[in-house]
């Protein structure tokens, strides 16, 4: 027999002997406990002089020792593990998408073209852009134009504007060519300029406040307003006159910009000085030999 096998056999025998010794010790502890209990009861009944407290402590120690050995002898219970949940495998899914996606590309392209043509035919995007007010629109000019030439088309202004959204110059040319009214839409882009719209709205608000003030304000307040307005106007006119006659002539050589008349006069002076310094030469281009 090899040395490894012999050592293994000796370890097994040593383990068996240790287990047998533990069992014998446990059995002997049980016997001692039972005899001590009988001894304690019999001694107490007979009235012998025995230290009862010492005996009880001894029995408690033995019981603790016995419980400790039993815990060591019992093997720990293994908690069963929950089975792993297998999810969706990503690699086969990706391969499936790559294989089927290439076959769906023509169908997707056809669907996109059909949807774009449908939206363009129904003027859906133009209607949305026109309703949201994206970009300048000649709506005011179109309404006044139809009021002048064809009032029956006023109810169709919104549909016409949404139909030609983004192509307003074509619409303007068609209307001018159809009704022979050229030049009616000149500079229509400036009608929707932000500053012009803000100025128009400010003027409308100013007129509304003026009407409300003239209707509901008491007479003393109206008189005070007129007097203050007249005083401010006179003060502005006097300040402007002083600026033009006394202050601006001093600052003009340093900060001033010549007006149209001064610029024209300066050009004429420059032309005269250039002509006086150079003699005119006859053209030799068409000279006859």
What report would you give on this structure?
- The structure is a single chain.
- The radius of gyration is 57 Å and the shape is elongated.
- The chain has 10 helices and no strands.
- It is 75% helix and 0% strand.
- With 289 residues, it is mainly alpha-helical.
Helix content: over 70%
Structural class: mainly alpha
The count of helical stretches stands at: 10
Largest sheet report: none
Question: Would you spell out the secondary-structure blueprint of this structure?
Answer:
Elements: H1 3-46, H2 52-73, H3 90-122, H4 124-132, H5 139-149, H6 157-163, H7 168-179, H8 194-216, H9 219-255, H10 260-277
Throw out a few tags for this protein.
289 residues, mainly alpha, 10 helices
What is shown here, in short?
Helices cover about 75% and strands about 0% of the residues.
